[in-house]
Design a protein that fits this description.
The chain has 193 residues and is mainly alpha-helical. It has helices at residues 15-18, 25-28, 41-52, 81-93, 132-148, 162-170, and strands spanning 35-39, 61-65. The protein has a two-stranded parallel sheet with strand order 1-2.
């Protein structure tokens, strides 16, 4: 592509906004050092486990990016993630800190509808049932069903792994017929549609 001498800036973001594309970018925008930033799905899962177990000290902000390196390392990045990250740093260098001035007469730029007064209710996602006995039975059913599945973690059913698929079947969220690899004739009539 030919370089154009007069490039019109289409971005409405400043240095802070553009920084959100990399891991830690959102956290640095709060101008507070009391935060944790993690990237990569394995690291995110580990951090969430640590939070659930109460092993992480209280923080003001926790930023978790499933993609390694943040959005610049995501699957929709058309360039090498490391080149994209370097280019992002170059773009940020010549931008103002922010392009969002606080309107006159207002103390904050954040619109009221973005703020909430009630803290969301905690709902454990790893618990199979409120009853330990029922959870143990469900766990045994998951193991049994998992051993009957192909075990190739193809994702064709919509679940990331065969184990996750088995858990969803036991929880009655999906039907065992959703596995396109497993023989369908042996599962007929087992699901509520």
């Amino acid at each position: 592509m030919h370089k154009n001498e007069s490039v019109e800036h289409l971005s409405e973001s400043g240095m802070i906004g553009l920084g959100w594309a990399r891991s830690g970018g959102e956290a640095t925008a709060i101008f507070n050092s009391d935060y944790l930033a993690a990237d990569g799905i394995d690291n995110v899962i580990h951090v969430l486990d640590q939070i659930e177990n109460g092993n992480i000290p209280p923080l003001d902000f926790i930023e978790l990016n499933a993609c390694t390196g943040g959005c610049v390392g995501g699957v929709l990045t058309i360039q090498n993630p490391f080149i994209a990250k370097a280019r992002l740093q170059t773009l940020r260098k010549y931008l103002p800190v922010s392009r969002n001035p606080i309107p006159k007469g207002e103390s904050s730029y954040i619109p009221e509808l973005y703020l909430f007064d009630e803290i969301p209710e905690y709902a454990p996602i790893t618990r199979l049932s409120d009853s330990i006995a029922e959870s143990m039975r469900m766990m045994a059913d998951i193991q049994t069903l998992k051993s009957e599945l192909p075990g190739i973690d193809c994702g064709a059913c919509g679940s990331p792994t065969c184990r996750a698929f088995a858990e969803d079947v036991v929880k009655k969220l999906i039907c065992v017929d959703n596995c396109p690899i497993k023989d369908r004739h042996e599962n007929e009539g087992e699901c509520e549609k």
